[in-house]
Amino acid sequence: MQLGSFKAWITVDNIELPEHSVQISADGKQVTCWIASEAGKNFTVCWTDSFLSARKHPAGRNIQPTCKRSSFKTSSTTERPLLFSNLELTDDDAYLHNTGSSELGDIKLIINEVKFLARNRRAPRYKPLPEPDKIHEKTKKAMGHRVKLGIEVGCAPSYNVESSPIRMIGSFVFKYRPLAQLQANGIIPLEKKRKRAMDPVAVLDLSIDNDDNDTAEADRIKKLEKELASLKQRQSQRSKKVKVEVKPEVKAEPSSLSSGRRQLGDIIDLT
Prior knowledge:
Elements: E1 2-3, E2 6-12, E3 15-16, E4 20-24, E5 30-37, E6 44-49, E7 66-69, E8 71-73, E9 78-86, E10 89-90, E11 106-120, E12 135-136, E13 145-149, E14 153-154, E15 160-178, H1 179-184, H2 200-207, H3 213-239
Parallel strand pairs: 5-15, 10-12
Antiparallel strand pairs: 1-2, 2-3, 2-6, 4-5, 6-7, 8-9, 9-13, 9-14, 11-15
Domain DUF7918: 70-189
Protein name: DUF7918 domain-containing protein
InterPro entries: DUF7918
C-alpha cells in the first residue's frame, strides 16, 4: 500500500502478500486493505520511504530506507516472532466479558516523524506482552485468525534510541482473515478450476450408461461374435490347400504289324 512517499507491505516466507480492496481515508492519513492469513505462518511487516535515502542522519550517515519488523523484543538479546494463529473460542461463561478488541483482526502500522536525540547504550526496559485471551462463542467474532507470539529465540543485542515525536504522518491497516472467509465475502474472487479433459474410455462408458444398458451390451456382444466368426471363416479358407488331379500321359507304342506310322482312324486287322 502507498501513502504519500511511504509504502508498507507484509511478507510471508519472503513473499509479499497480495492486497485487496485498498481504500484511503478522506483525510489521506490512513490506508486500509485486506490480506489472506494462514494459521501457523510467521509474517514480517515492512515499510519504506522513497525519499528517505536522500535524507541524512544528524551524524551524517544515511538512514536505512527500508525497515522490517518480524518479532517482538522481550529483552536486549531475545525476541518472539510474530505469527498468525487460529482464534480460540470457548463456551465457558467466565469469558463472556471478553468480547475481544475492536481492532482484533487488524495489523496497524503508524508512521511518525520524530527527532533523534541520542542513542542510549543502556538496554531498554521491555514490557511483557500479555497472551491473548479466549473469545466466547456468543460474541460470534467472524475473524478466524489472530496474531500471537511464537517461541522465544535469541537475537543480536540492541540499544535504545531516544527521540521526540514531531507529528503523525499516517497509518497502514492490514485486515487479515482466512482465504476461504475472504472468498466467501467476495473480497477475493474464487479461482476458476480448469476442466480436465475427459478420457475417451470414460466418454464411451457414459454413452451407454442408461436404462437400456444391458440390452445395448448384449447387442454389442452379438455383433462382435458375428464379426469374429466371419474373420475366422475367411482365415480358414485362405489356409486350405487346393488339390489338383493330374492324369498320366499315355504314349502309343509302334505296332510290329505295320512298318509305317499309323494314323488316327486306321483299322488294325489282327486275323
